[in-house]
Design brief:
The complex is a heterodimer of chains A (230) and B (186). Chain A is mainly alpha-helical and 230 residues long. Chain A has 2 domains: 86 residues; 108 residues, no CATH class. Helix content of chain A is 52%, strand content 4%. Chain A contains 10 helices and 2 strands. A two-stranded antiparallel sheet of chain A has the order 1-2. In chain B, α4 runs parallel beside α7 and α7 packs across α8. The chains are: A mainly alpha (230), B mainly alpha (186). At the A-B interface, α1, α3 and α4 of A face α2, α3, α5, α6 and α8 of B.
Chain lengths: 230, 186
């Protein structure tokens, strides 16, 4: 029978369970170091394989949701007045664009900049980053959509045609996208990444991708990604 | 490994107290510490990345409620992983109703290269990593989750709490997983 600790007891000892043997046995300490190296190597390998995107957008979304919770009203209490507003809007036939999941085509038809396919495909995948849009431009967009009285942290100013697909940094390509709707900013990111991938693999031409995302990004999502937001 | 940094962050936040920052800031700081480890864990649990991101958001909204109601701050790391684990179980239960939809674990490589001194060494390191990942992917679920949580710095007792199994089961799973991972070592 081996005089040394088994792996399970070595790991328990490493977790702080008392073991006089480990302190005095170089063989067991070496084996423990080997296991810890292997665990660290596994973590590195998984980091490389997983390609976890930047936290910027997820952090912004969390902040918006926390701010909403902090205001102290739960969704259940919001549901009643929200449902009443929707019913009222349906009754009087008002189409509410501000705060909806689609931009107003009159304000944000989408605009592109001159760009070549190789420029678009220089990065291997669409960048998931929140680009800095000047505060005064953001204020103009909120104002155009008539949502200046609402808290801007409920929205992200989004490029309708993402710059990764040649979208222009123009107010005609910007709109306030809500964080909290089913078809939200994160869902649109998935579409943007998918379109970028299709354009760069030659499955779709750039002009079609730009047009489809500008005309109706939700329809484009259903066409290129899936029927329901993932 | 992440154990030290995560625990240190929690200790610092605890020491800082609530006066120095709002609860929202505290939750966002914890989010910054734990988002990547949680995503790694959920991916090991075969939750697709987009859904894993949503589960992580839920975890931190629940954490906010938990702290807002002055509930226990002991072992927040264990609490966070435990809630994520339960959410992942719910996710799989819900998907089972619409047919099993397991996300395959992501492929290795895909054009990503490590910065190694030379091509031969680089190839060797990449082969070693590929071997580790393929063994990791083939492990039984409980063994894979135990190993994943241990790699994120959780202690055995915490892993047992997260997975709802005994300390002995955790130790056995870990021993099995390590035997497979190191047994085939070159």
């Amino acid at each position: 029978m081996s005089p040394h600790l088994k792996d399970r007891d070595l790991l328990l000892a490493a977790d702080g369970e008392p073991s006089a043997h480990l302190e005095n046995c170089a063989h067991c300490r070496a084996r423990l170091a080997e296991i810890e190296d292997m665990l660290a190597g596994l973590a590195d390998a998984r980091d490389l394989a997983n390609r976890i995107p930047s936290a910027a957008r997820a952090r912004t979304l969390l902040r918006a949701r926390l701010a909403q919770q902090s205001r102290g009203r739960t969704w259940r209490w919001r549901l009643i007045p929200a449902a009443a507003c929707v019913c009222l809007a349906m009754i009087i036939g008002v189409r509410v664009n501000a705060g909806g999941p689609r931009p107003d085509a009159r304000l944000t038809p989408g605009e592109t900049r001159p760009v070549t396919l190789s420029e678009v495909c220089r990065s291997t995948e669409a960048a998931v980053v929140v680009r800095d849009i000047p505060a005064d431009t953001q204020a103009q967009v909120f104002s155009a959509y008539g949502i200046d009285r609402r808290r801007p942290d409920q929205f992200e100013i989004d490029y309708l045609i993402t710059p990764d697909l040649g979208g222009a940094e123009s107010i005609r390509n910007l709109w306030p996208q809500p964080y909290t709707t089913r078809w939200n900013a994160r869902v649109k990111d998935q579409l943007e990444q998918r379109l970028h991938q299709m354009v760069c693999s030659g499955e779709l031409d750039l002009a079609t991708a730009q047009r489809d995302i500008a005309v109706d990004w939700i329809a484009a999502y259903k066409k290129y990604v899936g029927d329901r937001p993932k | 490994m992440s154990a030290f940094s995560s625990q240190t962050a929690i200790d610092l936040l605890r020491a800082a107290g609530r006066d120095r920052s709002t609860l929202e800031d505290e939750v966002v700081s914890l989010f910054d510490c734990f988002r990547t480890p949680l995503l790694r864990y959920l991916l090991a649990f075969r939750v697709p990345l987009s859904d894993a991101e949503e589960i992580v958001q839920d975890v931190f909204l629940l954490l906010f409620q938990h702290l807002r109601h002055d509930r226990s701050r002991e072992n927040l790391q264990g609490w966070i992983f435990s809630v994520a684990h339960k959410r992942a179980l719910k996710y799989h239960a819900r998907n089972k109703r619409h047919g099993e939809r397991f996300e395959p674990l992501p492929p290795f490589g895909d054009g990503q290269q490590d910065r190694a001194p030379g091509p031969e060494e680089q190839m060797y390191f990449n082969q070693q990593r590929e071997r580790l990942l393929s063994i990791f992917r083939a492990l039984p679920e409980q063994d894979r989750l135990c190993l994943s949580l241990r790699a994120e710095g959780l202690r055995y007792r915490e892993i047992a709490g997260v997975l709802g199994i005994s300390l002995g089961s955790v130790a056995n799973s870990m021993a099995r997983a390590i035997e497979r991972l190191t047994g085939g070592a070159v």
